[in-house]
């Protein structure tokens, strides 16, 4: 089964908690703090595996969670860091954040890796908080929570050559006779509903990957028919082979078909028109195809190579394959070249991004002040509320962030309730 789009949930591992401990050894009076740090959690990492062709594995498992770090131990021993969770994906996988729409990674090369969710760092043990004023602190940190994300995986087939054209023009038949691929072939439209890949050997030591892509119809760029499901895959091909039914067996005009398909490609992505294109005049074994080919050549204004073939009788295939191989040798690989261009543009252009506030204050209908904010929530999660020293440190951190002053400006009075998550605090002025 070919799966090219899926939504999944990933969560990186939390950091291990730091420990409060003291040295207890014979002949070592007042040994001092000896609580170790927690280990870092594991990242969620996507890695390209060229042996994969679809996202079908994600149909059966849609939630991925990395391991958390080990907690700190006594005798100043640090907890072990967790291993990263490596998830294999096929070449051409685009990873996007569902909530923000941001493209996190575009994975195109075998072995390429991208960190999709960052792990939390381990909390510090009490040994880290020892000072000359407080040589024996009973203070430690919880591990930082790992990043969690709902993401969308979108597969864009990586092939050297893409076959485009209206339904039933012979794309699947052509792929089946020039490669070992066995796509479904039948005498009705949209027989091909998923891309089929085949390795083509030209016979002179060269080879390339050819993709038989689902048939296009007018309006595909707006999602009509298979629409974007097809056009998503043509983005990554280096050479476009336009297959046309030159026999006009279905009553359509071959030249009008040619214009209609190119119009859809242009409307979807203007850059597609920059790709080298080769025209394949198929079904030349059908009566009347020669006359239609002459008419087509008379109307064609662009200088595009035309190869008359018959996929059924296998005539005219060798010159076509050799020309495609020659064209690939002079065409830059895609999309690696464009990705490099994007990286260069990003290093030149400055993009202003407003910093998110450390915290926000709202008020519920019951009159309770509610605190929120990513930095504040992370600070809360890393505080060990089982120890008074940690609670006092948390209060000092809130004061340093300006939470007390902000509450006063919002009208908070002494004794009123402040809520953070499910916990409620009393505001003391």
TrEMBL record:
Top-level taxon of the source organism: Bacteria
Sites where the protein binds GTP: 165-172, 190-194, 212-215, 282-285, 310-312
One GO BP annotation of this record: ribosome biogenesis
Broad class of the protein's primary localization: cytoplasm
Region (Disordered): 125-145
Stretches of the chain forming a coiled coil according to its record: none
Domain OBG-type G: 159-329
EC number of the protein: 3.6.5.-
Annotated OCT domain residues: 351-429
Entry's transmembrane regions: none
Gene Ontology CC terms, in alphabetical order: cytoplasm
Positions that bind Mg(2+): 172, 192
CDD domains, per the entry: Obg
Xref: PROSITE patterns: G_OBG (PS51710), GTP1_OBG (PS00905), OBG (PS51883), OCT (PS51881)
Pfam families: DUF1967, GTP1_OBG, MMR_HSR1
EC main group: hydrolase
Entry keyword set: Cytoplasm, GTP-binding, Hydrolase, Magnesium, Metal-binding, Nucleotide-binding
Gene3D superfamilies per the UniProt record, alphabetical: GTP-binding protein OBG, C-terminal domain, GTP1/OBG domain, P-loop containing nucleotide triphosphate hydrolases
Keyword Metal-binding: yes
Domain Obg residues, every copy: 1-158
Compartments where located: Cytoplasm
Family listed: Belongs to the TRAFAC class OBG-HflX-like GTPase superfamily. OBG GTPase family.
HAMAP family found in the cross-reference section: GTPase_Obg
Quaternary assembly: Monomer.
Record function comment: An essential GTPase which binds GTP, GDP and possibly (p)ppGpp with moderate affinity, with high nucleotide exchange rates and a fairly low GTP hydrolysis rate. Plays a role in control of the cell cycle, stress response, ribosome biogenesis and in those bacteria that undergo differentiation, in morphogenesis control.
Name the record gives this protein: GTPase Obg
Organism in which the protein naturally occurs: Listeria rocourtiae
Gene: obg
């Amino acid at each position: 089964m070919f799966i090219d789009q899926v939504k999944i949930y990933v969560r990186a591992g939390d950091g291990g908690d730091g420990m409060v401990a003291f040295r207890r050894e014979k002949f070592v009076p007042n040994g001092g703090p000896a609580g170790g740090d927690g280990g870092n959690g594991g990242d969620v990492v996507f890695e390209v595996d060229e042996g994969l062709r679809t996202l079908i594995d994600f149909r059966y498992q849609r939630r991925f969670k990395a391991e958390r770090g080990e907690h700190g131990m006594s005798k100043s021993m640090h907890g072990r860091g967790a291993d990263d969770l490596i998830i294999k994906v096929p070449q051409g996988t685009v990873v996007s954040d569902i909530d923000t729409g941001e493209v996190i990674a575009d994975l195109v090369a075998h072995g390429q890796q991208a960190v999709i969710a960052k792990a939390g760092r381990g909390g510090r043990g009490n040994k880290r908080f020892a000072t000359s004023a407080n040589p024996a602190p009973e203070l430690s940190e919880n591990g930082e929570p790992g990043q969690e994300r709902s993401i969308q995986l979108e597969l864009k087939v990586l092939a050297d050559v893409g076959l485009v054209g209206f339904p039933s023009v012979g794309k699947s038949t052509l792929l089946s006779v020039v490669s070992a691929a066995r796509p479904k072939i039948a005498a009705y439209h949209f027989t091909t509903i998923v891309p089929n890949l085949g390795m083509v050997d030209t016979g002179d030591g060269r080879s390339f990957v050819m993709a038989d892509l689902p048939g296009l119809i007018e309006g595909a760029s707006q999602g009509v028919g298979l629409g974007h499901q097809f056009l998503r895959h043509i983005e990554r091909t280096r050479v476009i082979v336009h297959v046309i039914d030159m026999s006009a067996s279905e009553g359509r005009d071959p030249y009008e078909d040619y214009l209609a398909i190119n119009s859809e490609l242009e409307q979807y992505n203007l850059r597609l028109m920059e790709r080298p294109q080769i025209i394949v005049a198929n079904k030349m074994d059908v009566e009347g195809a020669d006359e239609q080919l002459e008419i087509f050549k008379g109307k064609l204004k662009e200088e595009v190579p035309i190869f008359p073939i018959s996929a059924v009788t296998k005539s005219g295939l060798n010159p076509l394959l050799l020309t495609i191989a020659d064209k690939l040798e002079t065409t830059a690989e895609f999309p690696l070249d464009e990705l490099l261009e994007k990286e260069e543009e990003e290093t030149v252009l400055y993009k202003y991004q407003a910093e998110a506030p450390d915290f926000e204050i709202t008020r519920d209908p019951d009159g309770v002040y509610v605190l929120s904010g990513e930095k504040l929530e992370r600070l809360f999660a890393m505080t060990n509320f089982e120890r008074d020293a940690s609670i006092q440190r948390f209060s000092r951190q809130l004061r340093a962030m300006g939470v007390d002053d902000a509450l006063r400006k919002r009208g908070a009075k002494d004794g009123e309730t402040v809520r953070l998550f499910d916990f409620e605090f009393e505001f003391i002025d």
